[in-house]
Description:
The protein is an alpha/beta fold and about 180 residues long. It has a single domain (about 1-170), classed as Hexapeptide repeat proteins (UDP N-Acetylglucosamine Acyltransferase, domain 1), CATH 2.160.10. It is about 30% helix and about 25% strand. It is built from 4 helices and 16 strands. The chain has helices spanning about 1-10, 20-25, 30-45, 50-65, and strands at about 65, 70-75, 80, 85, 90-95, 100, 105, 115, 120-125, 130, 135, 140, 145, 155-160, 160-165, 165-170. The chain has a 7-stranded mixed β-sheet with strand order 3-6-9-12-14-15-16. It has a 5-stranded parallel β-sheet with strand order 1-4-7-10-13. Helix 1 runs antiparallel to helix 3 and helix 3 packs antiparallel against helix 4.
Amino acid sequence: MGHLRDDARALTAQEPTWLRKIAVLCLNPGFHAVLLYRVSRWLHLHHLSPLGFIVSYVCSAMTGAQISRRAAIGRRLVICHPFGIVIGAGSVIGDHCTLVGLNYIGQRNFTGVRPVIGSHLHAGVGAKLLGDIRVGDRVHLGADVVVTESLPDDVTIAGGVLRHRGIAADRSPAA
């Protein structure tokens, strides 16, 4: 359960007092979604999948986040607003991931293949990562960005603009 400890530290790092840290952990539905995912994942890995399924269901009903127990997610996961978050089975996410809300990480066109995402992902509201793609480290996605192609390290996409190591390129559709 070391991952859960790291998740809690990532979420409460900016809180100045222990009382505020405890309040955030007790009252933050995003942390509840992470906690229930970690429990369901542990149960799945210890051959208790039926119980893991039940915990995943409770997570979905309680927080609005559907996080598969078969997704592999690294340390320091922060979910700001869990409602509408979907992380499909087989998805792989590295350390230091922040999901703001309404994010979808999973298959595209019922292919069954899910994304592999590096560390330090920040996905804005409504950002989606779909299909057989690889996303590098330190990737920042703005609101409503849809990623269907692999991305290298150090990329920022917002408002139809791809920024990679300081070089901007317009990725909006031609008029």
